Amino acid sequence: MNTKYTYGLGRRKGAVARVRLIKGKGNITINNREAKAYLCDNKTLLAELTDPLALANKQKEFDVTVRVSGGGLAGQVDAIKLAISKALTLDAPDLRPILKKAGLMKRDPREKERKKYGLRSARKKEQFSKR
Asked: Is 107 within a domain?
């Protein structure tokens, strides 16, 4: 199978998403499963997932194939959004300002802070006892 595709990589928290955009009818496949099934019919996450394609008016132009690992569903969706945005800008560089203005070209750097010794979590301390 010799099909031409555009590749994009996105990361968020612990999630890493590798996306391929192939000319098609607008099907989204995540880890060999339909997006709706993978995201447990969560309409918010499904709508968020298609944001870059909706902004570019290319929802029905591309089939999106995603391989995603790590993190939870919300982090994975954010990673997929970034990957789709990067792949779209490789395919059509004139879309970059539109996606950048919408905040879809920036990687969210926030990560979970590590637990410190002597504490219950990253910053939570034992309850203070006066007596």
From this structure: no
CA–CA distance, 106 with 89 (Å, rounded to integer): 13
CATH number at residue 77: 3.30.230.10
Q: Give CA separation, 120 vs 14, 48, 124, 131, in Å.
A: 22, 34, 5, 21
- For residues 13-36, average pLDDT: 94
Position 91 scores a pLDDT of 86
Checking DSSP bridges between strand 15-23 and strand 62-69, what pairing results, if any? antiparallel
Per the structure, the complete domain to which residue 34 belongs is given by 5-101
Q: What percent of the chain has pLDDT over 90?
A: 88
